[in-house]
Amino acid sequence: MKGEKALSIGLIFIFFWLLISAQSNLPKFSSPALITSAGQNAEVQMVAVLAKRAGIDHNLNKLATAQDLAGFKSLLLVLGASMKGLGAAGLDLNKEMERIRGLLDGAKEKNIPILCLHLGGEERRGAQSDEFIRACLPAARMVIVVKSGNKDGLFTRLCQEKGIPLIEIDRTTEALEPLKNAFTL
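Request: output the structure for the sequence above.
Response:
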């Protein structure tokens, strides 16, 4: 009986040690963070709410450009195209992609790490969204995605090719913990 109890305690200790080790291998981000959408999606608002709940100093700028990166230590890109959002912003796909490429170049130049999030699930996928995903993911240090948005394995393939940590969650609200853990507060 004592041996079984000791074994159980040992296994629990090992489990938690492995869990902590896995989390400590993930990249760390610093605030303040600039949050913007790649594709003018509505999920960018949810990421701003999650960042606030996580205690991350941030600024939401839906039309951020490379010039807006000044003073920020991290860039959160919320991936997914919305034709309605693009229209409301007075942009088309080409103008939005140009803005995002400039932002990616600016972040690289300033050595600002990028955390990509895709929280719209399967509904926010499609040819237009996939263009933004393919353009942004190679620059990311970490990716958080709702599992239903990765049914075809696109995020898995792109992240594996570049050695980028991928965190899959079941629901949008579950992004809070990995987001909080990604930042050194």
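Residues 27-182 form a domain with the Rossmann fold fold (CATH 3.40.50.2000).
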